Amino acid sequence: MNPTTLTIIYFTIMTGPIITMLSSNLFLMWIGLEMNLLALIPLMNNSPNPRSTEAATKYFLTQATASMILLFSILMNFKQLGLWTFQPETDSTIMAATFISLAIKLGLAPFHSWLPEVTQGIKLNVGLILLTWQKIAPLSILFQFYTLVNPALLILSAITSVLIGAWNGLNQTQTRKILAYSSIAHMGWMVSILPYNPSLTILNLLIYIAMTVPMFFVFHMHSFTSITSMSLMWNKMPMALPMISLILLSTGGLPPLTGFLPKWIIITELMKNNNLSLATLMAMTALINLFFYTRLIFSTSLTTFPSNNNSKMYTHQNYKKNNNILPPMMIASTLMLPLSPLLL
């Protein structure tokens, strides 16, 4: 792709969520979402092939549907109140439709089915943008107006997302689909605590991004698209084994790594609000998430997959080709748990 075009696309992707976060006008928020949507599609289809074309088409159709529902809610609210912002007097049906549109954009269950398929059909670097930066704009809208949404709707979507993200990730062998279902589960954790302590939603989002970015960087640098391709890491890149293992365990929420921090704080907050059943259910699903991350580590470092003799003759690759962002992101994704007293 032309460098000028690529620069414009990335600038639009960066600007869209910023416009949405800084706006108090719902129409401007919608414009920021649309900038994000239209700028990402050329990146998805940068190397045209049937899979990327299908992924870009699915992404466009689902996101356009969500944008249509959101715009309809905004216009109905303007017709009712004459304001370009939601108010306590806004009709509950309008707020429910708004939440549905944002749930589609975030990939929350039961509107999640597009996310694994789209993630599987695009490159890893585009998948990183889809699963991290693209979540910021819709989540910022939900953060501003969560008090107007029925809490039962938020909790129901959160429970469904956590369960689907955990169970559907068990039978996956493709790393991109595993990361997509992990994203669905993490979104469920963020939404579950929103009615009780919204600041923990922001903390969870930041830690999720800090864990997902280095994982995608490692997968992208070495083209790890399946568990089978990761099984040769022990021979090709032995120095990468402890790094990727720690990141995977942290993403799964194993103490004392960083990924345990949001789960620990969210479960504590749910118990403080006498929501013991939801806290118990989410703790159980966290163990399922940890299982399929442990399976990745097991296939990567503790076993040797059946392979021909030539694959065992790979020379060790020099791991110095990593860029400068990976070491600090690695530290942030694994060693931030001692900061929990300050964050609390």
Automatic annotation (TrEMBL):
Similarity remark: Belongs to the complex I subunit 2 family.
Transmembrane parts of this sequence: 6-39, 59-78, 93-112, 124-146, 152-171, 202-219, 240-261, 281-305
Coiled coil: none
Keywords in alphabetical order: Electron transport, Membrane, Mitochondrion, Mitochondrion inner membrane, NAD, Respiratory chain, Translocase, Transmembrane, Transmembrane helix, Transport, Ubiquinone
Domain NADH:quinone oxidoreductase/Mrp antiporter transmembrane: start-end pairs: 23-288
Topology in the lipid bilayer: Multi-pass membrane protein
PANTHER family: NADH-UBIQUINONE OXIDOREDUCTASE CHAIN 2
Gene name, Swiss-Prot/TrEMBL: ND2
GO molecular function, one term: NADH dehydrogenase (ubiquinone) activity
Catalysed conversion reaction: a ubiquinone + NADH + 5 H(+)(in) = a ubiquinol + NAD(+) + 4 H(+)(out)
Domain NADH dehydrogenase subunit 2 C-terminal: 290-344
Organism: Alexandromys fortis calamorum (Yangtze vole)
Enzyme class: translocase
Keyword Zinc: no
Keyword Electron transport belongs to the record: yes
Alphabetical list of InterPro entries matching this protein: Complex_I_Subunit_2, NADH_DH_su2_C, NADH_UbQ_OxRdtase_chain2, ND/Mrp_TM
Location in or out of the cell: Mitochondrion inner membrane
GO CC, any one term: mitochondrial inner membrane
GO BP, one annotated term: mitochondrial electron transport, NADH to ubiquinone
Assembly with partners or alone: Core subunit of respiratory chain NADH dehydrogenase (Complex I) which is composed of 45 different subunits. Interacts with TMEM242.
Task of the protein: Core subunit of the mitochondrial membrane respiratory chain NADH dehydrogenase (Complex I) which catalyzes electron transfer from NADH through the respiratory chain, using ubiquinone as an electron acceptor. Essential for the catalytic activity and assembly of complex I.
Protein name per Swiss-Prot or TrEMBL: NADH-ubiquinone oxidoreductase chain 2
EC number: 7.1.1.2
